[in-house]
UniProtKB/TrEMBL annotation:
The lineage of its organism: Eukaryota, Viridiplantae, Streptophyta, Embryophyta, Tracheophyta. Signal peptide: none annotated. Keywords: Repeat, WD repeat. The keyword Transmembrane helix does not apply. This is F-box domain-containing protein. It comes from Camellia sinensis (Tea plant). WD repeats lie at residues 199-238, 251-293. InterPro entries: F-box-like_dom_sf (IPR036047), WD40/YVTN_repeat-like_dom_sf (IPR015943), WD40_repeat_dom_sf (IPR036322), WD40_rpt (IPR001680).
Length: 348
């Protein structure tokens, strides 16, 4: 009988994964998913060193956030820490992953800032800039500048396209038009990057616009207030580039420039306006009268210079100087006044 071959001790010659250098291990890890890499990191200190490599976590970051600007990850000591910090922040606040990007404009003050469905809208002096988000992400030309105004823009509003004469089909129902007022005495309606209507009627700069449309059903209108101390009502359904026949009424009663206005929450035909001398007037825009001042259905005043005005249900909140006054529009009685000591308010 042939004796079996003596056993060979291979323990001294066997090669293990830890015999590979770090670069080789990192390369192998490029074929692993996040869960597998995390498991590798828990096995031993040597493999953890490879699993924590910046190149591995940079790949995970690009896969998770392909549009993320890479420079924003450089503020932490490692790519892994940056990835985990961002993941934790998103989970904590429970919002969809935001885009982080820097966008530089001319060094001029911003007067207004709005977020539309796919656009960021802001004004500087007489210009309106529209930044299209999908074009920005796609690497295309994303900035449109509207330059038809000839003086500082005073107010910016977004109104539903279907309330205007520009509405053509149901596919446009979720779109908005942009309406701006200016010190050049005009109001302009914009859509698809172009001025579609120009409304003129104020005898001076137009200082403010209603925050919502007035009325129910079809034929809704918007309001404007001017330095000429008038409130004017405009139809969005009028046709013509110059907005002919758009002016529906001119309301008189204010003695000083109208600076702010808001539509009542409990009754959309009521408009609240306040002038520079802090006089508050409530207008019933459905009233038909030859004397337009008779459309005023309520008057009161607040102390201090007005800085903000906002309606909610049957109340209107007026911020003036360092206090906020709540007024019941049904009785025109002041419900409460909240004062802020040694602090001046800027908006409401």
């Amino acid at each position: 009988m042939v004796n079996p071959s003596p056993s060979i001790d291979q323990s001294s010659s066997a090669t293990t994964v830890t015999d590979l250098n770090i670069d080789s291990l990192v390369h192998c890890a490029t074929y692993l998913n996040l869960r597998d890499v995390s498991s590798v990191a828990m096995s031993c200190k040597y493999l953890r060193r490879a699993a924590y490599s910046d190149s591995i976590w940079k790949r995970f970051s690009r896969e998770q956030w392909p549009e993320q600007i890479s420079s924003s990850f450089s503020q932490t000591s490692s790519m892994r820490e940056a990835y985990l910090a961002r993941h934790t922040a998103l989970h904590k606040f429970k919002f969809s992953d935001p885009l982080v990007a820097d966008f530089y404009t001319e060094p001029k003050p911003y007067n207004h800032l709005f977020l539309n469905t796919n656009e960021i809208i802001f004004s500087q002096s007489s210009l309106v800039h529209m930044m299209r988000i999908d074009s920005f992400l796609g690497g295309k030309d994303f900035l449109v500048t509207l330059s038809d105004h000839h003086a500082r823009i005073t107010c910016v509003r977004l109104f539903p396209l279907y309330e205007t004469s520009l509405f053509r089909s149901e596919t446009q129902r979720n779109e908005n038009v942009l309406v701006t007022s200016s010190c050049d005495h005009s109001i302009r309606l914009w859509w698809k990057g172009n001025c579609q209507r120009c409304f003129r009627g104020h005898n001076g700069p137009v200082s403010t616009l209603s925050d919502k449309l007035l009325g129910d059903g079809s034929g809704k209108i918007f309001a404007s207030g001017g330095v000429d101390a008038t409130v004017r009502l405009w139809s969005l359904s009028s046709s013509g580039k110059r907005g002919q026949h758009a002016l529906k009424a001119t309301l008189y009663g204010h003695e000083k420039p109208v600076v702010l206005m808001s539509v009542a929450g409990h009754k959309t035909s009521l408009l609240v306006s306040i002038s520079k001398n802090s006089k508050v007037r409530v207008w019933d825009t459905t009233a038909s009268s030859a004397v337009r001042s008779s459309c005023c259905v309520g008057v009161t005043s607040v102390p201090g210079a007005p800085v903000g005005l906002k309606c909610h249900e049957s109340l209107v909140y007026v911020a003036a100087s360092s206090s906020v006054v709540a007024i019941d529009l049904r009785t025109m009685q002041k419900v409460f006044t909240t004062a802020f000591r040694q602090q001046e308010l800027h908006s409401v």
